Amino acid sequence: MKQVQHIFGGSRYPPFEDHEEWELAQWLINNVNQRATDEFLNNHTFMKIVDRLPTSPEWRCELVYTNGDVKDIRHDQGDDEGHTIDGEEMELWVCNPVACIRELIGNPAFNGNIAYTPEKVYTDCHGTGRWYDEMWTGNWWWETQHCLPSGGTVAPVILVSDKTELSHFKGDKNAWPVYLSIRNLSKEVCCQPSCHTSILLGYLPVSKLKSFDCLFHYCMRRILQPLVDAGQNGVEMVCTDGQIRRVFPILAAYVGDHPEQCLIAYCAENQCPKCINTRFPPHDQTQTTCTLHTQATGQYPPEFIAQGLQPIFTPFWADLPHANIFTAITSDILHQLHQGIFKDHFKKWCMALMGKQDFDAQFHAMPEFSGLHHFKEGISKVKQWTGTDHKQVQHVFLAALVGAAPHLDVIKAGSSLLDFIYLAQYQSHMDCMLDALQQALDSFHVAKDIFTDLGCCEHFNMPKIHLLQHYVETIRSLGSLDGLNTETSEWLHINQRDYLVQRMRWLQCQEAIIWFSTYLAWHIGNMQTGLQPSDDCNGSDESDVPPQHTTTLLDYAMATRSTQTFLLGPSYHISQWPQFPRRSVQYLRQNHGAEHFPAMPARFDTTLTMFDDELQQCGGFHGLQITKVRMIFKLPLHLGNYQHPLAYVHWFKPLTHFDRNVGMFCTTYSTQHCLPNASIIPVHCLVQPCHLIPKFPSGDVNPHWIQGHIMMDADIFYLNRYIDFSIFDLYQNHF
């Protein structure tokens, strides 16, 4: 980028004349399709200007021929896969993965958000408990580092693939994009789409032929071929800090849904892609490769049938150095938990037990909460579900079971499963959290037999249920799962439209604009802070051996989370000057169209309120009590000068009764002399909102509750454990 600036006389926006022309080009590429751009201006001249920008690694198209038979696949420039055959011609669009890694690890915009060595983070100074967060805090990086020569730097390669439709109007237009990222980069930048830490590596051809499994592995082998030599011998790269390191790109994780995982692991979709089965040890990559080779030679080893392998004899991962594809296949929160266990199995079992009509009525009567989707029509009529919809249902699903489930084990199974889903989504884990994760899974297995006893399902021989046992080991190996989720790939290809040459041409223009925009943001930021980009790329580490760090959690948080905002205490925001102060109900009726205002019950939010500061230091809900906020106000100055606004609240009884069957605290309204127990307290005593859910009785839901009066008419409430992660975490820390 700097070279381009020097060529154009040091201009800040080369090859564009000024800031306005650069913004126009950026807007056209990012918001207007290629055809509309052609109509708007002389596209030939415009594209010549954009072509002067440096781009990410260039695309190339390779032709692949196949007649659909497993035996006959070859590359158009080599005969390493067989002889020339007559059949379908398909295009394989690829980038060089080593060049993509060079771009990511050398991007100065990521300086300060990148790691080159593994670390062990402990929760105390005695090293009694591990902390798992970024990939460099997991065991895989440590084990891989020992396999490299002295001074080598690991670049953990993350591959993501997800078949997608390119057009909603033509069903035959499909593509299979493959994305690449490296986990030297922190999750803080990897989880931000605007940082562009995932690079489109290639488009696999999509075929309906029976030999597609073989075609997939052949194309992936062609795409990843440069990683074989780079992983064995290393490649010198300039890193974000200006230092030159010998980088070894090694496949660490492959993110995909269950069918893709089985396709990668050469197993049937009713098998586990990570291990043979519950009675055998995990797959060993070397032994599996030997078994496939032995089967290919016609010797028919018994392991081939016992392990449920498929007749594909040249897997793409066979030659990748220091990689184990069976440990690289990650646990998938979206498809295994949200859309798998919860939606496809547990929710269906519960609805079969309780009936759709009763279940829908309870969701309709559910008390509202800020940010919570209110399913006014219930959930049985929803046809298309997203990951966000599943999370919304999980917030209140257990509340619909309590009091209406035919057996306590149904509630225990639901509570254990939701605990597992919530714990698996944590952004960081301690050893005690992983113990709680395993305990939740064990509790679910103990209680789940009630569904076979009640006739909801025949068996639990389901791969997605079996895959739950791999979550703890995956977190210990690769770090937390929030950075290894297929939800990431959903937004990566959300706007893919065209394919073939024009599509790749336009995509390269988009990448050029992205790279130049990133450079400008970095360059201008350095100028504003008085820094200049360093031209010295010849520096080296002081030691040939990368330091292996061990640190405490506090040191780790200060070193890796320096840009994170920590809340030191509760805060609130109240409008200083209300737009319509002191308005009567009659005024609201006449001027704001609120004809039915008195007919609807008022909504008064419930909050956790501080009543004992010292007791709250014990953690959890100690020192907290639930209140219903009826009014927030400020007194006139002649009545006193108060630092904070005041709140008029009604108290609930203290959280002393914990229902172990449900896993939540029970409470009821607190009264004094048959009247609500009310107080006026400073607003800063309100800690955070909470969600109370009624204990639904068995049978039909009270029609009066459905009309919105549930908070006034119900007697017993549960403090919703699953409304958000902050409340869930308080439950975890209470005991």
Task: Describe this entry's structure for a reader.
The model is unreliable at 69-86, 167-171, 493-502, 527-548, 553-558 and 560-570 (pLDDT under 50). The protein starts with a helix and ends with a helix. The chain is globular, with a radius of gyration of 30 Å. The chain has 735 residues and is α+β, with helices and mostly antiparallel strands. It is 38% helix and 16% strand.
Blueprint of the fold:
Elements: H1 2-7, H2 19-31, H3 34-40, H4 43-51, E1 60-66, E2 73-75, E3 88-94, H5 97-105, E4 119-122, E5 130-132, H6 139-145, E6 152-161, E7 164-165, E8 174-182, H7 187-190, E9 199-204, H8 212-224, H9 226-233, E10 235-238, E11 244-255, H10 258-265, H11 285-296, H12 302-306, H13 325-328, H14 333-354, H15 356-365, H16 387-401, H17 408-424, E12 429-430, H18 431-447, H19 449-453, H20 463-466, H21 471-478, H22 487-492, H23 500-528, E13 549-552, H24 553-560, H25 585-592, E14 606-610, H26 613-616, E15 624-633, E16 646-651, E17 657-659, E18 664-667, E19 671-672, E20 675-676, E21 678-682, E22 686-690, E23 692-694, H27 703-713, E24 717-719, H28 725-734
Parallel strand pairs: 4-13, 6-11
Antiparallel strand pairs: 1-2, 1-3, 3-9, 4-5, 5-12, 6-8, 7-8, 8-9, 10-11, 14-15, 14-22, 15-16, 16-21, 17-18, 18-24, 19-20, 23-24
Helix pairs in contact: 2-23, 14-16, 14-17, 15-27, 16-17, 17-18
Number of helices: 28
Q: How helix-rich are the residues, as a percent range?
A: 25-40%
Instruction: Round the mean pLDDT to the nearest integer and report it.
Output: 78
CA-based shape: globular
Largest sheet: 9 strands, mixed
Distance between the amino and carboxyl termini: 56 Å
Q: Determine the strand fraction and express it as a percent band.
A: 15-25%
**Poorly predicted segments:** 69-86, 167-171, 493-502, 527-548, 553-558, 560-570
User: What is the number of E strands?
Assistant: 24
Radius of gyration: 30 Å
Class by alpha and beta content: alpha+beta
